[in-house]
Specification:
This protein is of the alpha/beta class. It is built from 15 helices and 10 strands. The strands form 2 sheets. The protein has an 8-stranded mixed beta sheet, sandwiched between helices. Strands 5-6 form a two-stranded antiparallel sheet. α3 crosses α5 and α4 (about 140-145) packs across α12. It is globular, with a radius of gyration of 20 Å.
Length: about 375
């Protein structure tokens, strides 16, 4: 069981690794590395079905357990108090610290294993490098990671510039973007409409949320042929496409957790996740403006210096770097809106005349929020082609 020591030894991060793909040595083509960050309740073990398919895609797949999850250092009491403080600056500092630890984890991988840097083949294809992909609520860490690159130590900045080929937001949670439009707040209380979410339902206790959430988040909902245009006001397009999205009732479309064995399920969930006073529950108390600021900063190119930037604060991204959004067309509405909201913010920044990272969106058809678990071979093949 591999562990990485970061933050001057104060933090340990647990991870699992598919290893160097055999095709890398046989073909001489440098492999790409996918580092996967999990979301709410379900930790890195949810990605284990992907590991057997890594080699055939010339990939190395590494799954990371965030702080507070099995094998990794718990979030400290002082960090929890800062997250619960309602002070945006204190909350932002904790998120920045957690994100920097992920950056140091990438440095660990490069130093420990000699992960190949980004290279260009003769025909212009990108080879090697690292793609950092976050799922669901875990996308708040990826936004924070990209938002705070300028304050990284030089060793981490170097790894970003030589190895980071893409950042992927896989079925991102709208909550992780700090978006809390009124129609979602109100809809989140009504189980009869497509905007409902137990995470936004104030009538539920922690125990009730813990019971309802796994089935809710892993169900199959009526598919969408394309992403609706996100808006902070309820538009006809959103009402028409999302307001009524029934759960699909069929044997092959049962919620993912109902198709898992008890052993599989227990191996990938943090059973005490919903305990009050823990670090992950505290993160849900972060002010929306903190998440919103991270989203904005994440999408803007940091290699473009402003008059206030000192030379050492600028991060040089590799020219191949881009931002990817992977959205599943039968997933929960929260993730549909999260995927659409990234494009919304990206377009707004362009209209402001700012230089942003290239953004590409990839639909995963016929997939719920657990596309990586239901059809790992197809999922990983699609991701490998996109990154």
């Amino acid at each position: 069981m591999p562990f990485a020591s970061v933050d001057n030894g104060a933090v340990t991060l647990y991870y699992e690794d598919s290893g160097i793909p055999s095709g890398d040595t046989a073909t001489g083509v440098p492999y790409a590395t996918l580092v996967l960050i999990h979301g709410t309740m379900f930790h890195g073990a949810t990605f284990r079905p992907l590991l057997p398919y890594a080699a055939q895609n010339n990939l190395r797949v590494i799954t990371l357990n965030q702080r507070d999850f099995p094998g990794s250092t718990p979030i400290r009491r002082d960090e929890i108090e800062a997250l619960e403080s309602s002070d945006p600056h204190s909350q932002s500092r904790v998120l920045q610290s957690l994100a920097h630890q992920i950056a140091q984890f990438l440095v660990h991988l490069v130093d420990q294993y000699g992960i190949p840097p980004i290279q260009r083949s003769r025909d212009g294809k990108t080879q090697g490098g690292i793609s950092l992909i976050a799922w669901s609520q875990g996308t708040n860490m990826l936004f924070s990671f990209l938002a705070h690159l300028k304050s990284l130590p030089e060793s981490a900045k170097k790894v970003v510039s030589t190895h980071l080929r893409s950042a992927g937001f896989y079925d991102p949670s709208l909550y992780a973007l700090g978006e809390n439009p009124q129609y979602v707040v109100e809809g989140g209380k009504d189980t009869s409409n497509g905007f409902y979410s137990p995470l936004r339902d104030p009538t539920l206790s922690m125990e009730q949320t813990s019971s309802i959430f796994p089935t809710f988040v892993s169900a199959f909902y009526s598919s969408l042929p394309e992403l609706p245009l996100y808006s902070r006001e309820l538009t006809d397009d959103l009402l028409r496409s999302i307001h009524f999205r029934p759960v699909i009732q069929s044997p092959e479309r049962r919620p993912s957790v109902e198709q898992m064995t008890q052993e599989e399920y227990q191996s990938m969930v943090k059973s005490d996740y919903w305990t009050a006073g823990t670090g992950r529950i505290a993160i849900r108390q972060v002010q929306p403006e903190v998440f919103q600021a991270n989203v904005r900063a994440a999408l803007i190119k940091k290699s473009v210096a402003t008059t206030s930037d000192s030379p050492e604060s600028v991060v040089d991204f590799h020219p191949a770097f881009r931002i990817l959004v992977f959205w599943c067309d039968m997933t929960v509405t929260e993730a549909i809106l999260g995927s659409s909201a990234i494009a919304y913010h990206h377009d707004r920044l362009i209209k402001e005349g700012l230089c942003v990272h290239p953004l590409y969106s990839e639909r995963i058809p016929g997939a719920n929020h657990f596309a990586h678990w239901h059809d790992p071979e197809r999922f990983l093949r699609g991701v490998s082609e996109a990154v």
